[in-house]
Amino acid sequence: MNTIWLLLLTAVVHAQQEPLSFEQLADSMAVHPKPVVIKIVTSWCPYCRLQDRQISASADVQQVLRNDCYFLVLDAEQHTPVQFNDTTYTFYSNGSANGIHLLALKLVGNKPAYPAWVVLDEKYVVKGTYAGMLKSRELLRFLLLYLHEQDS
Amino acid sequence: MYLNSTFKYLKFSIAGPVVFLLISSPAFSQTIRGRVMADGQPISLASIFLAENGKGIATDSAGYFKLENVKPGSYTLKSSATGFRPYTRRVTITGNTPVTVNITLQQDVTKLNDVVVTGTLRPVSRAESPIPVEVYTPKYFQKNPSPSLFESIGMVNGVRPQLNCNVCNTGDIHINGMEGPYTMVLIDGMPIVSSLSTVYGLNGIPISMVERIEVVKGPGSSLYGSEAMGGLINVITKNPATAPVVSLDAFGTSWQEYNVDAAVKLKAGSAQSIVGVNYFNYQHPLDKNHDGFTDVTLQQRISVFNKWGFQRRDNRVASLAARYVYEDRWGGDMKWSRQWRGSDSIYGESIYTKRLELIGMYQLPVKEKIMLQFSYNRHNQNSYYGHTPFMADQNVTFAQAYWDKQLGEKHSLLAGASFRYTYYDDNTPGTLGADGKVNEPMKTPLPGIFVQDEWVFAPKHKLLLGYRYDYDKHHGNIHSPRIAYKWTPNTDHTVRASFGTGFRVVNLFTEEHAALTGSREVVVAEALKPEKSYNANLNYVWKITMDNAFINIDATGFYSYFTNKITGDFDTDPNKIIYDNLRGHAVSRGISLNTDFAFSFPLKIMTGISYMDVYQVEDNAVGVSQKSIQLNAPAWSGTFVIGYSLPAGFSADLTGNWNGPMRLPVQHNDYRPDYSPWFMLANIQLTKKFPKGWEVYGGVKNLLNYVPKYALMRPFDPFDKHVNDPVNNPNGYTFDTEYNYAPLQGIRGFLGVRYNLFR
Question: How many Cβ atoms from other residues are within 10 Å of residue A73's Cβ?
């Protein structure tokens, strides 16, 4: 019996899910609507890397991200357009090489800070945002808070 | 849905313990229930969380919660909700009794976002390009607020704002030890600040109009043309679309320096606009070193900035910006007042500067990405250095078109043409006809074409090839190639290697002219070559991620070779100014290391160290080459920024820079040392964030109260009226203001307030 428990535990720890892509999201939502969690990052942001460590250190957070929502990652400075909730968002250039992706701008507003967490409900309504790195427990609390907010 | 998702969560998180409990002690699992209230009202959607096992739930609309299947033991129960302070208490579960916990939350003045302060804006980063570009945002410079870009830029490792004059506080920006004329300053990628305006124009750029600053150490003429020889600083102005609706930043210091930055955003149809005003005032003469002269130049400066951004189809770019700067500065004898301007009785240096800048960008409404850029600036200087007048006018008109094309997956092509026209006139013989009567302003048209390809030739390998051709009437054809390579074996390591060239065309602007009298014929040597620089550098970035810390190591080795320096010869023929290339060269080589630390707790450390060897080799009168160490280029220098975020919206920043000995301009038999001592300028700041975008900050600048021991030579005889006095002045010293390695401003406090309202 103890072996079964151990197996269960290891299965949980190793089942780190890959984030969904934006293309996959539309299909998944059509079949089975769920809340959406988006982690907004940039390539240069050190706290985004620390954030990933916090996620991989917590099986609970991984479970929530895998089961209670559709989890996506958006690079706030990517140049590729993204289809989200029937709208196409593109990169918004500041007249030179730099700029911000319009989806990131829409989700986090004018004060970009990374990593940023955004929780949306099944109807793509923003329920909660947080700008900054969250330690695994705080992240869990944050996710729980807003993943449940829609239900009441 | 509520029950459903809660159930799912519980199912997964408790699956293990439940299985375990069923086997060992099934009877002891218990329930924690309760209600969350604040000010007598139930709080819905508050989170309830057991720290020990990660189990959590949110309260319902009446504030009730129920945590089921909790194993006996002692737990830390935490609760939080938006706008309230986190709540923690111990809960012990024994036997079969359900536990009831009623929680009262306290209002939090700070928002949820501010409780855990690890959110970050990009303060410093390297761009994606194979060319090593360092990017800084105002966030970085706010760690030690300064009224102008000139002062702030000293926080960048390897970049040194050098004051060249202790009286008027003019300065230039040294990159890797090379003098200011080799540093190109661009606004939105356009040459707005050049030649004449490098001296005073930099003071007029308020940090408030800046979105970010890009620094390239090493030449960049293949893209930017003339003047980008030693390095370049590109100031990118704020984007009206992302700027705050209202912003205000005002501070004062105990030296009675006042700086106000204010901006509002306007909307007119599809256009958005920022109107910004910067005002700096320092009108309180101080002479703490008792030499009879002002320690810091008195200044009054107003800068008005207006930028329009137009919303267009497919996010095409269209923007138009204008800025006007007026500055009145004077320094000198404490007894000086405006009536002595230009006289030879009481010494003062008084400079009025007027500047107008126009910057426009327009993307053609075609499928291809074709950008048109234009800029115009007019710089007018009306000045007296003692009794020597210097009146100068400079207009720079610039236009450029480029085509940005992605060719397949692998090539990113940039090709374009530019035209720059510089008009320069002053009251010196430098711009006067040979007869001394006809004014002959210098007119420099400089057309050029450029092409650049960023080629991903293999996964993780990027190559940048660039080439530029310019035509100048004095120099003829000028070629500037560049090659850069970037290798990213994985996200943790990046290696860059680059080779670049820079050039500068002959420029008649020299402050030395002001001292010349009579008429002179300006002769430009027959085969005058443009000043040239060649640079190679190797850069390595290593990102180390640990569980609770992140370290970014960024090391660069550089070697730059400067040749064909153009100087005006005033001595060979007293009726002429002969411009010719100097025989000799200069070298700037060294290593710089930037190390950034970020932690999972709110401490951030950024440090920079540079070691460099900068020297000139010139032929002396008999043709023997002689090496001399570059003035004002310390072999060792460094910067640091240490930031810590505290609870309740407080944060503290310790910033500073330090310099090793640098060679200084001394006179024959000078009593002042040839080399400066080691010294450090450190600053501390405390910031408190309030709700609704308010911030109050204050601190101490020059915490260690470092002021140089020596500054002016013979301040009591600024007009050199009594130099020929073998008894009192046996060494024949003359008045000079150039001996400077640190500001004459000691310890001072500052206090300021910031407000940012976003839509």
Answer: 17
Q: Which fold has domain B2-108?
A: Immunoglobulin-like (2.60.40)
Fill in the DSSP letter of residue A65.
I
Domain boundaries, chain B: 2-108, 124-235, 236-241+263-757
Q: Which one of A34, A47, A142 would you mutate to disrupt binding with B, by most B Cβ within 10 Å of its Cβ?
A: A47
Q: Is the backbone peptide bond immediately before B26 cis, with ω within 30 degrees of 0? A: no
Give the residue from chain A lying closest to B317, CA to CA.
Answer: A95
What six digits make up the tokens of B475?
Answer: 């120099």
Please check whether residue B317 is in contact with residue B292, taking contact to mean a CB–CB distance below 8 angstroms. no
Evaluate whether B453 touches B408 at the Cβ level (below 8 Å). no
- Tell me which range, A100-109, B17-26, B41-50, B624-633, is most confidently predicted by mean pLDDT: B624-633
Alpha-carbon Rg of chain A, whole angstroms?
16
Query: What is the reported pLDDT for B294?
Result: 94
Bridge-based pairing of strands B748-757 and B271-282 is: unpaired
Answer with the residue of higher pLDDT: B125 or B69: B69
Tokens standing for residue B85: 């302070």
Closest in A4, A105, A151 to B2, CB measured = A151
Query: CA B9, B10, B16, B18: dihedral to nearest 10 degrees?
Result: -160
Q: How many CB atoms lie within 10 A of CB B691?
A: 12
B9: nearest CA in chain A?
A64
Q: Which residue of B has its CA nearest to A7?
A: B16
Q: Phi-psi bin for B408: left (phi > 0), alpha (psi -120 to 50), beta?
A: left
Segment B531-556, tens digit of pLDDT: 999 999 999 999 998 888 889 999 99
Q: Quote the ipTM score.
A: 0.74
Angstrom distance (rounded) from CA B447 to CA A119: 53
* DSSP code of residue B84: B
Sheet holding B576-581, edge to edge: B521-524, B576-581, B566-569
pTM for this entry = 0.78
Nearest to A141 among B8, B47, B314 (CB): B47
| B41-42 vs B30-38, strand pairing mode | antiparallel
SS (H, E, C) B526-552: CCCCCEEEEEEEEEEEEEEECCCEEEE
Cβ of A46 and B552 within 8 Å? yes
Return the beta strands (E) in B408-475 as ranges. Answer: 411-426, 442-458, 461-472
Residues of chain A with Cβ-Cβ distance to B47 below 8 Å are 141-142, 144-145
CATH: 3.20.20.70, 2.170.130.10, 2.40.50.100, 3.40.30.10. Which one for B124-235? 2.170.130.10
Q: Which two tokens stand for residue B541?
A: 């970035």
- What would the mean pLDDT of B309-318 be, rounded to a whole number? 84
pLDDT tens digits, B369-417: 898 999 999 999 998 988 888 888 989 999 999 998 888 889 989 899 9
Give percent of chain B with pLDDT exceeding 90: 42
| CATH superfamily, region B236-241+263-757 | TonB-dependent receptor, beta-barrel domain (2.40.170.20)
Whether B122 has a pLDDT exceeding 60, the answer reads no
**B621-625 long-range Cβ contacts below 8 angstroms, 24+ apart:** B625/B584
> CB distance A152–B47 less than 8 Å?
no
* 3-state SS, one letter per residue, for B143-204: CCCCCCHHHHHHHCCCEEEEECCCCCCCEEEEECCECHHHEEEEECCEEEECCHHHHHHHHH
Going from N- to C-terminal start, the domains of chain A cover 18-149
Asked if B47's CB is within 8 angstroms of A8's CB, the reply is: no
Structure tokens at B400: 């450029």
A18-149 maps to CATH 3.40.30.10: yes
Q: Which residues of A touch B126 (CB under 8 A)?
A: 44
